[in-house]
Amino acid sequence: MPSGNVETSIPVSNETSESFQVTSVTALGNASITANACENTTTGINEQCKVTLALNALSGENQETLSIQTTHPQAQSFTVTANYEGLTLTANELEDQIDIEDIRVFSNQDAWQTDGELLFPTTVNSKQKSVLMVSDIDARQFHFDVSIDSDSPDSILNIYLDGELRDSVKDTDNAYRRFEFSGADTVALEYIAPNGNVAQTSVKVRDFAAGSFAWFLLALASFALVTRNRSE
Fold first, then answer.
1. DSSP assignment of the chain, as one string?
2. What are the UniProt keywords, alphabetically (predicted)?
3. What are phi and psi of 100, to 5 degrees?
């Protein structure tokens, strides 16, 4: 999430064998609760409710913890911990490679880079990660292409929409795979380096832009068909 003053929601899940009612929720730490959909409500089996926190997100890896009190006889008190990474605004060069208007681009301490055409994560150590997040998309449709070429099956690029994991990409054999999304405010690309010393790992992202390339091709094909019919 972006560093600074932000709001975030933490889910509270019922993974027990019976329903319970949440009687109290307390934020442990410096965060404050701004919305509580859990307290005084019944949470069924495998259901969840959400608590919204206002916090000053620090750069780097951090966590926030909630203390939960319930009516469940075997789970009268438990804690829920949410881990997050505070991200900072990136250089304008990265934003210039993303063809979506009025966005903000963030990265973690191991920031993404660009060569003026492609976006790619910085070199990181084993099991470390390099994160790129684009915010203020405002539910617009967008797409990008991902290519991964690695000697290790552990190299992975996770794709998050509004903080929820949507897809994961492993070795594509240097071929590009297209992704198209809509309805989100943020998208994050999280590259996790493989375990051990890998000789070759290449992760590349291109054509990060608003709109749908597939619909553009369909429109071109329809236009060509109409033009041809008229000429005949």
1. -BSEEEEEEEEEE--SSS-EEEEEEEEESS-EEEEESSBTSEE-TT-EEEEEEEEEEPBEEEEEEEEEEES-TT-SEEEEEEEEEEBEE--HHHHHTEE-TT-EEEE-SS--EE-SS-EEPPP--TT-EEEEEEE--TT--EEEEEEEEESSTT-EEEEEETTEEEEEE---TT--EEEEE-S-S-EEEEEEPPSS--S-EEEEEEEEEES-HHHHHHHHHHHHHHHHHHH-
2. Membrane, Transmembrane, Transmembrane helix
3. -135, 125
Q: Whole-model pTM?
A: 0.69
Is the distance from CB of 10 to CB of 51 less than 8 angstroms?
Answer: yes
Q: Which of 184, 180, 155 is nearest to 170 (CA)?
A: 155
- The confidence score (pLDDT) of residue 198 equals 56
Per-residue model confidence (pLDDT) at position 225: 47
What domains appear along the chain, each with residue ranges and CATH number?
4-86 (2.60.40.10), 88-213 (2.60.120.200)
List per-block mean pLDDT (blocks of 10 residues) for the chain, which spans 232 residues: 70 89 88 89 90 76 85 88 78 89 89 92 86 92 93 87 90 91 92 73 92 52 49 51
